[in-house]
Design brief:
Helix content is 38%, strand content 13%. The chain has 305 residues and is α/β, with parallel strands linked by helices. The chain has two domains: 106 residues, NAD(P)-binding Rossmann-like Domain (Rossmann fold), CATH 3.40.50.720; 176 residues, 3-Layer(aba) Sandwich (Rossmann fold). The chain has a seven-stranded parallel β-sheet. It has a three-stranded parallel β-sheet with strand order 1-2-3. Strand 1, helix 3 and strand 2 form a beta-alpha-beta unit. Helix 1 runs parallel beside helix 12, helix 5 packs across helix 7 and helix 8 packs parallel to helix 9. The two termini are 32 Å apart. The structure holds (2R)-2,3-dihydroxypropanoic acid (DGY). (2R)-2,3-dihydroxypropanoic acid binds next to loops.
């Protein structure tokens, strides 16, 4: 984010690694003088973390930090922060918008008008949203914000998470397949990373069935994309709204051929207000690190580290 980069340059002796012609040579030459690493969509793998021998913290721009090797950082006593909470509203707003678009066919009907097809006949009937059954995978901060919005649509809500969440009024389903079998719409709001890779498996997609819709605003890695493509193509699932993909920004061309999928460019948190909130939190974390030695919003240290 250019504004964040400018503020970082103003406040700190700061370099943008990806602007270096030879980042590895730069690190070998000057890496030891850096005390903190700021990451965004490129993240930080174990090799990068190992090579920056004096950093005390990694402050990540984003709530999801699946692209930062937190275990490698923890092994070296390096704390990692993310940007929780400030994006809950915008991500939840987009999840509901994407759900409505996918189920009511907003994008598809807009293409219909632009193509001049309205002159030839009516757009096909779509499916009602209000009062339907919504399944949410992952009832963290974002999942709960989505649920609150869905209550405004009188939806019946259940959720799946590894463990039941204390103090929520919604029914917990022990398996994602069970949740998918029960619901009309399944919204994925779990964290990315190895533990949730392909959580939305071929079995989950089959359980959702030919009248079911999937919305993913978490990470592309959570969905078995090939299984989803197959199900969408053969209409074994009614439709999908996807803000995230396995290999962003590359979207499998086969998706482009389908009218029962809405494709967005990972934009759920992409409002000026929310991105400013995320940038401010990166800056507050750095300030706290340099003033107190502690981060403001550290992520949990993985078990065993
Ligand atoms: C996040 O913060 O993790 C969003 O997905 C934006 O990248």
């Amino acid at each position: 984010m250019p504004a964040l980069e400018a503020q970082l340059m103003d406040l700190y002796d700061c370099r943008v690694l990806s602007d270096e012609t030879d980042p590895a040579a730069f690190i070998a030459r000057e890496g030891d003088s850096y005390e903190a690493l700021v990451t965004a969509k490129n993240g930080a793998d174990a090799a990068l973390i190992e090579s920056l021998r004096n950093i005390k913290a990694i402050t990540h721009f984003g709530v999801g930090y699946d692209n930062v090797d937190v275990a490698a950082a923890a092994r070296r006593g390096i704390a990692v922060s993310n940007t929780p909470d400030v994006l809950n509203d915008c991500v939840a707003d987009l999840a509901i918008g994407l759900l409505i678009d996918t189920v009511r066919g907003l994008s598809a009907s807009e293409r219909f008008v632009r193509r001049g097809d309205w002159l030839k006949g009516q757009f096909p009937l779509t499916t009602r949203i209000s009062g339907k059954r919504l399944g949410i995978a992952g009832l963290g901060r974002i999942g709960r914000t989505i649920a609150r919005r869905a209550q405004g649509f009188d939806m019946d809500i259940r959720y799946y998470s590894r463990n039941p969440v204390a103090g929520v009024e919604f029914k917990h389903e022990k398996s994602l397949v069970e949740l998918a079998r029960w619901c009309d719409f399944l919204v994925i709001a779990v964290s990315g990373g190895a533990p949730t890779r392909h959580l939305v498996s071929a079995d989950v997609i089959e359980a959702l069935g030919p009248d079911g819709y999937l919305v993913n605003i978490s990470r592309g890695s959570v969905v078995d994309e090939l299984a989803l493509l197959d199900a969408l193509t053969q209409k074994r699932i009614a439709g999908a709204g996807l803000d995230v993909f396995t290999d962003e920004p590359k979207v499998p061309p086969a998706f482009m051929e389908l009218d029962n999928v809405v494709l967005l460019p990972h934009m759920a948190s992409g409002t000026r207000e929310t991105r400013k909130g995320m940038a401010d939190l990166v800056l507050h974390n750095l300030q706290s690190l340099f003033e107190t030695g502690r981060l403001k919003t550290p992520v949990p240290v993985p078990a065993g580290n």
